[in-house]
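Lecture 7 notes: from sequence to structure.
We start with the chain below.
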Amino acid sequence: MDPLIIVFGLGVGILIGLTGMGGGSLMTPILIIVFGYNPVTAVGTDLAYGAITKTLGGWRHFRAKNVFLPLAVWMGVGSVPAAIGGVYVLHLLEDRYGKSFDNAMLIAVAGAVMLTGIVVLSRALFLKQLLERERTSFVMSTREKVYAALLGLFVGFVLGVTSAGSGTLIAVGMILVFRLTPQRVVGTDVIHAAVLLWAASLAHVVAGNVDYGLMGTILIGSLPGVWIGSHLSFRIATGALRLGLAIVMIGSGLGLLSKAGAGIPAWVLAAVPVVLAAVVGGRQLSERSKRNGRPDTTLPPRLAARPRA
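Predicted structure tokens for the same chain:
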């Protein structure tokens, strides 16, 4: 039992409870880069512990009425069989290519993690206009049910192969396609991910890819972490936290590519997160200064144009 794994489990659990994302996108790279686990074992174990962690978080959000259940069900129609199929494809590739498959697996996980980080970052920086059209629920048409199943199909397969992206990619889809409010996005995302992770993790159990001792060690930290995070999610604005998480994902993706033999210089690995943080911070400060400089539109036009004493 490594105390450091418990600490990482606690941190990732808090992030899952707060934002609904960050499980596979962070824990899998941590297990591979920091602790040196085999990529396939890291993916299988991450999914197994994540199923239990997100079940706890999903129950908390369900009790708080943050779940839009019809959407979660229709996403599951596509995601559950796709996740099982992804695990089967992963097993076939591992059997065929053996040890040489490790590097390919590292590249696949890196690609999924970086895509997730880029999507989250782009949504936070460039898609804020969608906030004005958000809704808590709606009557799902046949077309929206098909969209939900297709979204689940794509994310389920990616999750089955890499363990990354279940929370983030589904969340972005719920924002872009279905325009749910942040609380509904997190709650619906977590409860859908719990069902999806159970399907994928059971497939990994059958394939023999789960390290139960490692899973138990992570759960010691992650279970209280997700409980704390889901409690705080009702009290804390998570926009800045999502941005930071996106930057960490992109950096961890580069680290995985380097471990796979991509030859990325150490200074690039260190510089990219710093540059991204500077760009995001600069943009946030610029937006804040613009908001502070706007005239008060609640006053009559003549008074609003005058400088305040």
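Points to note: Residues 51 and 197 are 5 Å apart (CA to CA). The chain has a mean pLDDT of 77.
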